[in-house]
Design goal:
This is Glycosyl transferase. By secondary structure, the chain is of the alpha/beta class. It is built from six helices and four strands, in the order αβαβαβαβαα.
């Protein structure tokens, strides 16, 4: 039996690496599924006192979706006195500002703040927008939602109860669902990407 040359060794190593990564992903996915189904019907215990939560939403030219997102966040099943919503309208050139101000007028008894940045203070990416919102936040915990998210009404309560009741947790993440998952191939791919991310996180 002849010895393998360098190219053949590299080929074998590549195959081994690929299959090892696939195996790791399968194990993580299985762990995520097991964790999910074990906790699917688990009742969430109420906590004595809910902490103050600051919800940050960075948005750049998101006029098509920002209205639905903001209203769903304002109507979350969480004590209103313990929640503030901060939307960072990051140097948008569409009518996001008008949409947000209209919502603020209709929900004037809610703790809702709009930050409008310009080309000098904003337009430098999501992390910069979040930092701007963070500087005025008052919450004990920070929740971040994208401008096109529509969370379940109990999502925030579930996440807060989970992290408050487990001292070992430093952060929590919800399950992703793609709203228009069947619209086209790209959305189908994005749906499976989000499922995979959720499973990986919950299996750690």
């Amino acid at each position: 039996m002849r010895d393998l040359n360098v190219s053949e060794y590299l080929f074998v190593f590549s195959l081994f690496s690929i299959w090892s990564l696939l195996l790791i992903n399968i194990i993580l996915a299985m762990g995520g599924y097991i964790f999910y189904f074990k906790n699917f019907d688990k009742e969430i215990k109420e906590i004595d006192e809910y902490p103050m939560i600051s919800i940050l939403v960075p948005a750049h030219n998101e006029a098509k979706v920002i209205g639905r997102t903001v209203e769903s966040l304002l109507l979350l099943n969480y004590p209103k006195s313990k929640m503030e919503l901060i939307v960072i309208n990051d140097n948008s050139s569409d009518n996001s500002k008008e949409i947000l101000e209209n919502i603020k007028d209709r929900y004037n008894n809610y703790n809702f703040t709009i930050i409008n940045t310009d080309s000098l203070t904003g337009g430098k990416g999501k992390s910069n927008a979040l930092n701007i919102g963070y500087t005025i936040s008052k919450g004990d915990f920070i929740a971040v939602y994208d401008a096109d998210n529509t969370p379940d009404k109990n999502a925030l309560r579930y996440l807060v109860q989970t992290i408050v009741m487990n001292d070992e947790l430093g952060a929590v993440i919800g399950k992703f669902r793609t709203r228009n998952k069947n619209k086209n191939l790209l959305n189908q791919i994005y749906k499976h990407r989000n499922i995979k991310l959720s499973m990986d996180v919950t299996s750690w």
